[in-house]
């Protein structure tokens, strides 16, 4: 380890995402031993001292701060990792870029397209290395889907279908805003399921199936008012609780997307299915090691959907883990993103999705919200 170059991390935010990223940094050098770089957990930052101290000790950070501006100003930090609620992404990323730090930003890039454009402008000008944590791309079965599509096995694509279904906000008693529940507060989050969940589906879709041309959407807010944790008052809810949209992709295929936090029984059901002229694939986050594949080229007497257990050393990332047949999980997608980021420091290549790539997802999210508001089709760009 001593011969490796250090990437000194300053992480901002100690919530769920702070834990997933920290776990990625902690695991990566054990499982990707050939990388030239290794992450060093230099400092973590959060407003509450007791919380940030406990987090630093639990995850192995050398030090902690309670003011992100101080963290950014430190010269022993190379990269800022943004794990805050969405309303902090732009100001932190812009300040970090101006200070010459690399940036790893949690998804979605921003609350609005305008915010995202400004972030991209500053980051490009500062020429700092950057990436956005759309982690699902790096689940081996999803990466394998990309390889199958790119190899031409599916042929012309006709349909792309994706869902992201949850059920955790059904109770009207659930407050909005504040710690843990900022995702229900439009000021903090920007949007509801569109920016939080559909953004994942859109990122994967753009990666697998190329750009989206236009969208037609509808959104619904089922619970119109909730107590706000900060003010203690009942306030209007401005996020979208559910969103459905359809679209044309630039390659001529049709897309159908649905997301909600009101699908009783579903906790994080992210699924997609792609139908091509020669083959189809489908994937389900609840069974994330499997990729379902149907190939019309198979001998007709055995033709049918096959379930590929993506755990073989020949399959993406899997030579780094256990032995064929043994599964990995959600957390490994973050380890893979760290590994790819470290590798990109060696190769000098961008680590996708970059801020610029993630701006494409913002464009679609913005068009989806605008389309639902205006009850009309919206072009992307
Ligand atoms: C929301 O519940 C959430 O945590 C998202 O914010 C994450 O991005 C998604 O991966 C899981 O669900």
UniProtKB/TrEMBL annotation:
Keywords, A to Z, come to: Oxidoreductase
Where is each GFO/IDH/MocA-like oxidoreductase domain found? 144-282
Q: Which residues cross the membrane?
A: none
- Name the species this protein comes from: Maribacter stanieri
What is the protein's name according to its record?
Answer: Predicted dehydrogenase
Which Gene Ontology MF annotations are present?
A: nucleotide binding; oxidoreductase activity
**Domain Gfo/Idh/MocA-like oxidoreductase N-terminal intervals:** 7-132
